[in-house]
Design a protein that fits this description.
Blueprint lengths: L1 E7 L1 H18 L6 E6 L3 H16 L5 E4 L8 H4 L18 E9 L3 H13 L4 E9 L11 E5 L6 E6 L8 E6 L5
Parallel strand pairs: 2-3, 2-4, 4-5, 5-6
Antiparallel strand pairs: 1-8, 7-8
Length: 182
């Protein structure tokens, strides 16, 4: 795969996180009832960054959980006979809370649907909202993000790669051409 374009650097990612944080505060009229849940893998560090900034603005601590949707995917049988589990850790009650699911890229909507199914088994949230760093289009399900860092129109032969610590050494977002080398 060849890098086609760098669409966000660390500074742009930080700006998007700050803007989304303020939008979460505004939409929920504060953060008293808000919890953030990052979808494994790259949604987790994004949720932590959102919680850190939102907490600084509101001078409070925002609860953060992690959600593994592996067993809720509609393509589980296509993935692997032994899928890799990253773990769910939601150490707080979500019933009657405003849950903000956090993911890196919104594409078909299937990951979000699986995450909502998983959340429903944990408790009955008052609302479920979705925050994503990148919305690349190509929806297969009627799902939209409430908070978006950047809309990036893509072709199906492209892949969005969100590079973020602790998985990579630098924070950025690139478009990769997956048709290269075929």
């Amino acid at each position: 795969m060849k890098e086609k374009a760098r669409i966000m650097d660390d500074t742009a990612m930080t700006r998007a996180i700050h803007r989304i944080s303020h939008e979460i505060i505004e939409r929920n009229k504060g953060t008293e009832n808000v919890v953030l849940i990052g979808i494994q893998r790259r949604g987790v560090p994004l949720a932590k960054l959102l919680a850190e900034h939102t907490g600084q603005v509101e001078q409070t601590t925002i609860p953060v959980g992690t959600l593994d949707i592996t067993f809720y995917r509609d393509d589980l049988s296509l993935l692997s006979e032994h899928p890799v589990l990253n773990g769910t850790d939601i150490p707080f009650n979500i019933t009657d809370r405003d849950v903000v699911l956090v993911d890196d890229v919104l594409f078909t909507g299937r990951t979000t649907r699986a995450a909502m199914d998983a959340i429903m088994e944990v408790g009955r949230a008052r609302t479920i909202q979705l925050a994503v760093l990148i919305d690349r289009g190509h929806r297969e399900l009627p799902i939209r993000a409430d908070f978006v860092g950047k809309n990036v129109p893509t072709s199906k032969s492209e892949l969005i790669s969100v590079r973020i610590a602790p998985f990579e050494s630098e924070n950025n977002v690139v478009v990769l051409d997956i048709s290269e080398g075929e």
